[in-house]
């Protein structure tokens, strides 16, 4: 468990630290979109590219946010609980998250395989291939699932009085 947690946490930490600077790419794309619409002929690719960049930013940054505890919690009672009770609750609820991510991964893989098999393209004027962003979604969901398993292992370790 220690090795798994160390490897997955290291991968998601490093990738998250790199992906967090993707917001500047999104800003640059949207800035170019505004400038081109104001002063030149509008660029056809900018808004869809900004959407793709935002999907990549969100999907690849999610595991890092989970690892850092930056996700939003409904904290009506949780803050008053003991660390042991929090670990029990977290270990139980992360099972639902893992089920959801498993279903999401199944759908993402099916969608990505369809996009690869049939060279699916967007229905916009720019018509980019869809498989690159769908593969990013598959990678992001896979990393999120691996991070959820890592968090489960950390919760189990906390229940046993061990720090991972």
Automatic annotation (TrEMBL):
One of the Pfam families matching this protein, by short name: DctQ
Keyword Phosphoprotein attached: no
One Gene Ontology cellular component: plasma membrane
Record's protein name: TRAP transporter small permease protein
Domain spans labelled Tripartite ATP-independent periplasmic transporters DctQ component: 26-157
Keywords on record: Cell inner membrane, Cell membrane, Membrane, Transmembrane, Transmembrane helix, Transport
Sequence similarity: Belongs to the TRAP transporter small permease family.
PANTHER family reported for this sequence: 2,3-DIKETO-L-GULONATE TRAP TRANSPORTER SMALL PERMEASE PROTEIN YIAM, SLL1102 PROTEIN
Organism listed in the record: Halioglobus japonicus
Source domain of life: Bacteria
Job description of the protein: Part of the tripartite ATP-independent periplasmic (TRAP) transport system.
């Amino acid at each position: 468990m220690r090795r798994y947690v160390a490897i997955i946490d290291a991968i998601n930490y490093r990738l998250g630290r790199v992906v967090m600077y993707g917001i500047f790419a999104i800003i640059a794309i949207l800035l170019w979109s505004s400038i081109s619409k104001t002063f030149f002929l509008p660029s056809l690719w900018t808004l869809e590219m900004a959407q793709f960049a935002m999907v990549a930013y969100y999907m690849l940054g999610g595991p890092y946010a989970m690892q850092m505890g930056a996700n939003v919690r409904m904290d009506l009672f949780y803050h008053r609980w003991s660390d042991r009770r929090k670990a029990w609750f977290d270990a139980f609820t992360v099972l639902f998250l893992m089920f959801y991510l498993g279903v999401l991964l199944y759908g993402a893989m099916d969608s990505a395989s369809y996009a690869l098999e049939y060279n699916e393209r967007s229905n916009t004027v720019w018509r980019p291939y869809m498989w690159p962003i769908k593969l990013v979604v598959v990678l992001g969901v896979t990393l999120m699932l691996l991070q959820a398993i890592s968090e489960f292992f950390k919760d189990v370790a906390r229940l046993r009085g061990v720090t991972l």
